[in-house]
Amino acid sequence: MLNPMTASPAGTGSANAGPMSPPQPEASAQSSPTRVFHGPAPHDPVRATARRHEPAASVPTPTGAEPTEWPEPLLVDYPPYGDYESDCPARMGVDLFGNSWLPVIVYMLRDGPMRPGELRDAIGGISQKMLTQTLRRMEQLTLVERRRYAEAPPRVEYELTEAGHDLLGPIYALGEWVDKHGRAVNEALAGDAD
What is the tens place of the pLDDT at every residue in 10-69? Predict the structure, then answer.
């Protein structure tokens, strides 16, 4: 999996980009499967595998406090996807969240179809041009379906497709992460501004 903080487009930059999740300690034979490298590669798979199994860095804690334990992430065995970590298809999912309005629109459409005007009013802070561009892009990506009704005046609604609806899972997970860590991140950002 690719580390988006150090990633560059496929074919450029470092071939040794780190994994997106924290490195995991060496797994026992009975643990969940992890992604296994298949096939020859110009990068060093032994080094990449060792990096995946290094113990996680200790989490900073106040003086005298117990170190924080990270929960084990769900490990899944994926089919081979290329010679480099930058070939990982999960990059597409990460790129979807690069458009800051796309997750907001997906979330707003969670309960059913909406007209563009209703979306704009419910979201707030988005221009008509940006809303139109994002909805068109989402339609191209098969995340929403546009329905045009033969009425006077004409009526258009947007509804999530199955792929769009399935994005709600990662959006909810990010919401939980922000609920848990957002305050600390904001405090750290405020400290950097000083």
Answer: 333 333 333 333 334 444 444 334 333 343 333 344 444 444 444 444 444 455 556 667
Other residues' Cβ atoms within 10 Å of the Cβ of residue 86: 21
- CA 55 and chain centroid, separation: 24
Torsion of CA 164, 170, 171, 172, to 10 degrees: 120
Is the pLDDT higher at 31 or at 192? Answer: 192
Q: What is the DSSP string of 42-73?
A: SS-HHHHHHHHTSPPPPPP--TTPPPPPPPPP
Query: Which DSSP symbol is given to 23?
Result: P
pLDDT at 176 over 60: yes
Q: Are 114 and 131 in contact (CB under 8 A)?
A: no
CA separation, residue 15 to residues 1, 22, 37, 45, 89 (Å): 12, 18, 14, 11, 15
Query: Distance between CA 78 and CA 98 in Å, rounded?
Result: 24
Element (H, E) at 177: helix 168-193
Lookup: tokens for 48: 């990449």
